[in-house]
């Protein structure tokens, strides 16, 4: 993706975020570009008026002030307008920046949800996604601000340049040449910086991981009990030091190059100043006020060139980072090709000669697996750790696609069925079920989030999962915040969270229930309740797939498959 295309798409995001604010910012740019010349002009007029009134000042201060009052008022008004427009521009850019951030965040979150779970399993994807998403809400804002600043600086220079041409046609060219060396050196430095950051992405991810281990309460018990904090502190410091040393060396090289470029720019700018002084110090060269105005104009033009160079570098630098974001947002999800409906009255779920390997893995998680599960059956899948049970569970949910073979419902491949359709007919309690920091009722409603909340059904699902009494006893009942992450929220034991996960699954209107070690954290009483629930689901004609090590849990199954090393 070319730089111009990246910048254009970023500015398109800005326009989509708020056309009204974008137009207002454009008007501010034009006004702020013109104001510097107006300020310089009124200053020159004030200087000339002050020099003309100098004898009067000596005789009578009030009379002298009266003579320059008009010029002073003009200068004051233009200065105030300049400050006011700057404040207005800052206000508008702040409001627009918030809208851009919200727009980018929405798009990023939506894109992540569109991408398949299988795509997200790749370590390469995780690295690319980290690079794209890191600072993603800020990059388009910075591109917009750089573009706005660049346009303003260019307009300012053009306006000042027209006036400078009245003194000598080559003055604007010299002023532009003064900024060229610095611009070139900074663009080279920005590209080197981006390439370095790109090369350091994995290292940055490691830093975040080590920091999470050292600071997150989830890891705290083992970190303290095993006394392993020093190991991760050392790992963090080693990676941080390696990344910092590399950046330090590059920064030194860039600084040396920029100092040399600045020396060339300074020589050129001195030549411009000397030329102006020579041109306007002749007998017919103009007044003192005009000389002062011209020198200040040249200085302001130099500032405009310098600012334009800085904005150009900002555009170039940010476009390198935004390119990763744009490529991420342009990634195609697989949902567009999954348009078939889930058979409403299916007969069997069929797994045919399925083979599957995780990305960058050298071994098969599943190899030649075949089975058929009829509607209304309770089927068990047993196996040791690493035998492929959870991988098969993910595949039966349509989250993973086989490398070869197929998983279908009455001949319709799960790979072709819409994710929304699968969500409506298949539910699961995963072995590594998640803890959601939300209200108790919301945690259950997540099981069928596409429907309107039904409090009676929620309580019915909670009773079946043997957690209704606990939720009702909370300070705010089902409206109590859970998770223990934020002040005022309640934290559960793992067994209680597992029962809540079961209630979430039972709240759905699914036809197929996949329970992956769903009783692993339950006490004997809770396991008996879950077994009764499974029998009830079978009577209702639901298909239940039990994945477990436990012979007790598998005892309620009609039949049991056993996985060994990814094979049945």
Instruction: Pick out the low-confidence regions.
Output: none
Radius of gyration (CA) equals 35 Å
- The gross shape turns out to be elongated
Derived structural class? alpha/beta
H-E order: HHHHHHHHHHHHEEEHEEHEHHHHEHEHE
What's the total helix number?
Answer: 20
3D architecture notes:
The chain is α/β, with parallel strands linked by helices and about 575 residues long. Helix content is about 65%, strand content about 10%. The protein contains 20 helices and 9 strands. The strands form 2 sheets. It has a 5-stranded parallel beta sheet with strand order 6-7-8-3-9, with helices on both faces. Helix 19 links the parallel strand 7 and strand 8. Helix 6 packs antiparallel against helix 12 and helix 8 packs antiparallel against helix 11. The longest helix is centred in the first third of the chain and has 54 residues.
Short note summarizing the structure:
The chain is of the alpha/beta class and 568 residues long. It has 20 helices and nine strands.
Keywords:
568 residues, alpha/beta, four-stranded antiparallel beta sheet, 20 helices, 9 strands, 64% helix
């Amino acid at each position: 993706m070319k730089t111009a295309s990246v910048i254009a798409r970023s500015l398109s995001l800005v326009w989509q975020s708020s056309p009204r604010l974008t137009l207002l910012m454009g008007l501010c740019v034009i006004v702020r570009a013109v104001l510097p010349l107006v300020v310089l002009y009124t200053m020159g007029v004030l200087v000339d008026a002050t020099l003309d009134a100098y004898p009067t000042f000596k005789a009578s201060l009030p009379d002298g002030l009266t003579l320059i009052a008009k010029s002073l008022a003009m200068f004051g008004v233009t200065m105030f307008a300049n400050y006011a427009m700057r404040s207005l521009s800052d206000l508008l850019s702040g409001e627009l920046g918030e809208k851009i951030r919200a727009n980018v965040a929405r798009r990023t979150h939506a894109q992540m949800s569109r991408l398949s779970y299988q795509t997200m399993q790749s370590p390469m994807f995780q690295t690319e996604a980290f690079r794209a998403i890191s600072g993603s809400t800020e990059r388009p804002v910075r591109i917009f601000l750089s573009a706005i600043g660049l346009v303003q600086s260019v307009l300012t220079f053009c306006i000042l340049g027209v006036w400078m041409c009245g003194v000598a046609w080559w003055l604007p060219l010299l002023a532009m040449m003064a900024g060229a060396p610095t611009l070139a050196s900074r663009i080279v430095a920005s590209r080197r910086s981006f390439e370095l950051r790109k090369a350091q992405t994995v290292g940055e991810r490691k830093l975040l991981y080590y920091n999470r281990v050292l600071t997150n309460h989830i890891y705290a018990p083992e970190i303290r009990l095993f006394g392993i904090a020093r190991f991760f502190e050392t790992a963090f410091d080693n990676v941080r030091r390696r990344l910092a040393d590399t950046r330090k060396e590059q920064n030194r090289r860039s600084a040396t190059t920029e100092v040399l470029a600045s020396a060339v720019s300074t020589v050129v700018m001195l030549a411009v100043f000397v030329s102006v002084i020579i041109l306007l110090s002749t007998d017919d060269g103009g007044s003192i006020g005009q000389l002062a105005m011209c020198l200040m104009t040249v200085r302001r033009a130099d500032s405009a060139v310098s600012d334009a160079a800085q904005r150009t570098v900002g555009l170039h630098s940010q476009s390198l980072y935004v390119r990763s974001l744009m490529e991420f947002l342009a990634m195609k999800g697989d949902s567009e090709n999954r348009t078939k409906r889930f058979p409403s009255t299916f007969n069997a779920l069929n797994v045919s000669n399925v083979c599957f390997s995780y990305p960058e893995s050298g071994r098969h998680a599943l190899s030649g697996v075949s089975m058929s599960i009829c509607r209304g059956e309770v089927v068990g899948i047993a196996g040791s750790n690493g035998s492929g049970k959870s991988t098969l569970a993910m595949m039966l949910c349509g989250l993973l696609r086989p490398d070869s073979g197929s998983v279908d419902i009455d001949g319709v491949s799960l790979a072709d069925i819409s994710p929304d359709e699968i969500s409506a007919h298949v539910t699961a309690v995963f072995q590594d079920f998640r803890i959601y920091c939300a209200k108790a009722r919301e945690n259950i409603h997540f099981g069928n989030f596409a429907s309107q909340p039904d409090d009676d059904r929620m309580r019915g699902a909670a009773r079946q999962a043997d957690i209704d009494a606990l939720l009702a006893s909370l300070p705010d009942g089902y409206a109590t915040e859970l998770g223990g992450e934020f002040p005022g929220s309640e934290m559960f034991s793992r067994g209680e969270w597992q029962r809540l996960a079961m209630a979430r699954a039972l709240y759905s209107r699914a036809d197929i229930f996949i329970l992956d070690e769903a009783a692993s954290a339950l006490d004997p009483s809770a396991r008996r309740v879950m077994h009764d629930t499974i029998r009830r689901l079978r009577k209702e004609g639901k298909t239940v797939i039990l994945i477990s090590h436990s012979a007790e849990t598998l005892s309620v199954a009609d039949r049991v498959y056993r996985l060994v090393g990814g094979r049945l």
